[in-house]
Amino acid sequence: MTRRCQLIVFDWDGTLMDSESKIVNCLRAAARDVGVADPGAAAIRHIIGLGLNEAMAALFPDASASLRAALVDHYRQHFLELDHTAMPLFPGVVEGLEALSSQGYLLAVATGKARRGLNRVLDQTGLHPMFVASRCADETFSKPHPQMLEEILDLTGVEAHQAIMVGDTVYDMQMAGNARVPGLAVSYGVHPREQLLQSGALACLDSFREVCAWFQ
Length: 216
Fold this sequence. Notes:
Layout: E1 7-10, H1 20-34, H2 41-47, H3 52-59, H4 65-82, H5 93-102, E2 106-111, H6 115-125, E3 133-136, H7 147-156, E4 163-167, H8 170-178, E5 183-186, H9 193-198, E6 204-205, H10 208-214
Helix pairs in contact: 1-4, 3-4
């Protein structure tokens, strides 16, 4: 390929899939299960994108390690088994990924989800074949540490300046900066446009279709 960008790395929640409501519902249910105060939807939205352990530490800073572990366990139970909140892909994701792949871009995922959760949604959506690599928060350091991106770069053999990270949170943009990878933000996820731009995003786009058009 002769184009400057060879590899597009996508965040999952809030970028490809509209999972905000399910994450909020499951985390609030986990808090009820273990008898701690509900942190509220706004606080939960703010930590979407972090690994579960880091998210629990941010939401419940005074909780013991054992209580945070219980929160993680209950969250996973609700997310994987008990809660049935719909998680649709954002409009244009399937055809957009297919178009980008057909144009020769390598596609990958770097997510705060655990491997089990990512594999589940990849199978449910049929998108597994679209991606040449993926990294999850239970396999590496959580965002904004650069390890996820660095390992994807190593796997694909792509240089940092030839990749772009696409995400909806400041953690995505900070991870990109830490890995010396350009970052492209979307406004339809959980963090505000102004915060994303302040975190170093090249641009902040309003739909997945706009993301795909940006690469044209």
